[in-house]
Amino acid sequence: MADTSRPAEPPRPALAATPARQGIRGTHLFWVLVVGTLLAALGLFLAWTWKAPSLSAADNKLANTHAQSAGAFSAPAPAPITAQQGSDQTAPRAP
């Protein structure tokens, strides 16, 4: 048998599998979530500011092409709505 330099450890309490997997909620978990969310928001903001000039240039190009091709999609005004005789299913009006 091998000799150990550590003293004998006290026995640990037995814990069922489900509670052992769930972990503990507390201030540590809260700060991990807050810092992670702030880092994600900072990363998104930095990516947006890095790509914003090229996105703006692309929008200007699209605006010019939309103005030039708008005539192809022009349509006449719709016809006025007319009620057809005998198709009204509501109660008849009193004379």
N-to-C order of helices and strands: HH
Pick out the low-confidence regions.
Answer: none
Strand content: under 5%
Distance between the termini: 113 Å
The overall average pLDDT, rounded, is 76
Q: Could you describe the largest sheet, including whether it forms a barrel?
A: none
Keywords:
single chain, 95 residues, mainly alpha, 2 helices, 0% strand, elongated
Protein architecture, described:
With about 100 residues, the chain is mostly helical. The chain has a domain at about 25-50. Helix content is about 50%, strand content about 0%. The radius of gyration is 36 Å and the shape is elongated.
Give the SSE layout:
Layout: H1 17-22, H2 27-69
Summarize the structure.
With 95 residues, the protein is mostly helical. The protein contains 2 helices and no strands.
